[in-house]
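Re: [help] complex structure
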Amino acid sequence: MNEKIIGILMEQLDLDRDEIKPESNFVDDFEMDSLDMMELVIEMEKETGIKVENEKLVDIKTVGDLFAYVEGVK
Amino acid sequence: MKSRICELFDIEYPIVQGGMAWVSDAHLAAAVSEAGGLGVIAAGNAPGSWVKEQIDILRTKTDKPFGVNIMLLSPFKEEVANILADEKVPVIITGAGNPAEYIELWKKSGAKIAPVVASRALAIRMEGMGVDAVVAEGCEAGGHIGELTTMVLTPNIVKSVSIPVISAGGIHDSKTALAAFVLGADGIQVGTRFILATECTTHQEYKNKIIKSKDIDSKVTGRVTGHPVRLIRSPLVRQMAKAEYQENAVETLEKLGEGSLRAAVVDGDIKKGSFMAGQVGCLLDGEHSAKEIIEDIFDDAKFKAIIETLS
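Output below.
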């Protein structure tokens, strides 16, 4: 599942695999804004079927946070 | 559809292909002119010899009218300006500067002159200098942009000058073309969609990047330098966004930008390239010939259907 999320990020941001780490911060490291996060979440939902609730979205700041969230709802 | 622009430039359809540095070479321009639009070679920062060579190639492919876009910030502007006159280029489109010193020279050579403008005052000033038309380019366009949107800039310039106005920025299909004419334009300029022309020699990675881009992938960098540029999100754009608010921003941005357009157009370098494109990238989904693109935009049945939905 984590690899799927990494794949989406690589595609969305033209990142290399080794640039994406659990501690990578979406805003500080990838220059993503709230619209970019929405794009990521929509793509993830399409690919994995996992929905991210709006109120939880604000707490997801790093790639690791997203992995943990997905793990929790699986 | 006919307009004053068809008469002025002696073309079949009132459409001008955007002059995009590195992208708009003789191959693309000839294909557009041959299909009944105005094909345009972009001089960009290229030396006069390159421009002359492109004009020669174009003339082997078509005998229809064409234009050259001269970038007035170019270090070679003087020699390019003279070549355009010597070669009797039918239409000269100017960008990024004031063409005042060359107007007389070009008029004598018989050229029609159309500067790209991003504000009402600039359009009025250009009309006063005797140019034949203006290209009103809204900030939906790719590459170097102004602040105003096509929706506001076009009607404002239309009501401020009496020469023909060519609307640019966000125009790519019959709906957006019709919208430009409703706003009072006499013609349209299309850039990004022509990058996807099959005759366009731009690297396939560049074309793919446009095709897969989404709305929010369209970014503007370099506001701090006073020369903002619209392009598609990429690793380079992220680096530029970071640099924009740090010390020595202007120098850093200039350094990052150096050679980056060539890297995108010629090498298709995803990491170092700057993939300039208008916001319409997200609406485009494939490659077509220049002829197919023009006929798709000026499709009378489509125009009629749009108008019918309004009544």
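The mean pLDDT of chain A is 88.
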